[in-house]
Amino acid sequence: MAAERTTTDARAQAQSLTLVAAVNADLAAFLERQFDALTAIHSDLRLLCDAASAAVLVGGKRLRPTFAYWGWRSVQPVGAEGERELIRAAASLELLHAGALVHDDLMDSSDTRRGLPSAHLRFESEHRAREWPGAAGVFGVAGAVLLGDLLLSWAGEMFSAAITALPPERASAATSAFDAMRTEVVAGQFLDALAQTRQAVDVAETLRVIEFKTSKYTVQRPLLLGAGAAGADRESTAALSVYGLVLGEAFQLRDDLLGVFGDPAETGKPAGDDLREGKRTLLLALANEAATASAQPRQTEILASVGREDLDDGQIERLREVLVETGARAGVEARITRRAEDAAQALAAADLSAEARSALLELAQVAAHRRS
Predict the structure, then answer these.
(1) Are the C-beta atoms of 229 and 84 separated by less than 8 Å?
(2) What average pLDDT score do residues 36-51 get?
(3) For residues 74 and 238, is the Cβ–Cβ distance under 8 A?
(4) Closest CA to 22 of 74, 76, 101, 78
(5) ∠96-248-27 over CA atoms, to 5°?
(6) Whole-structure pTM value
(7) At what angle do helices 63-73 and 83-108 cross, to 10 degrees?
């Protein structure tokens, strides 16, 4: 039995690697066609093409296409009819994600993405390097807004072209998940922006933002997209839905920890930026609750500095210490562990293929305990 499980795990891992290569190839081919169309309009649009290429093809874990694929494979065997079209549709989720990240970096005033300058800084630097007239910062913002819009548009175009090759009922189920995903991520982003306007950091509100900004968008909807395209039954869909929701929360909570305690060499972003930006995370909510309950004025005073852009490295380090002292870091770690266990439990009751179950269990570990 152990040998059989090891073989299943190895097959699932090999198929995931093959999937990522296929997604990258589909994205490169799609972008090449789109770039040809853009530069045919005007050669100056090469600047937009280069920024799109950097946003989509440089780095990225391809998590959303991977979850979509294993949603498909939870029902369909490897190589089943329609698999190639499903992979192309899943690849479009990377265009959606890249567009969302471009806008997210702009809203958060983030300088880096995956170790490179964020899109708005890329356009701003180009403006300065060419010594164009006008404000470089304004050009950077304009370029990022338009690049994000373009990528979001291309995502819909790529998805629609691929998914229509499937039987109508299954294509409709996948399209419903794709449409919900696009709406929910915007809703989550707006709720996140709204949270920054409130002085209090509320645990329930923080978890609600995570549900729509990350849980549904990163895991649940991609899984349901693939499962719908495969013709999954209600029971399997329900199990995948629970798995996706709880694992998506674990994924975001790990992201929050990495944003404060992670190694910049691995994350590609400066540690502590989330504290300077004042992100309303569960980490911060738990720390504030603990400091208030224990009547610790020093901790409360230090936590009140979150959101100041001029925080220096020493102040960031003191904030990290408070997040540890209050038990907030340990509390978030414990919740991540529980959510990963909940995800595994949801799979245990589901009627899925052995390879899909193995791959999804492995993805749960990667998402919950990654270092970047």
Answers:
(1) no
(2) 97
(3) no
(4) 78
(5) 25
(6) 0.91
(7) 150
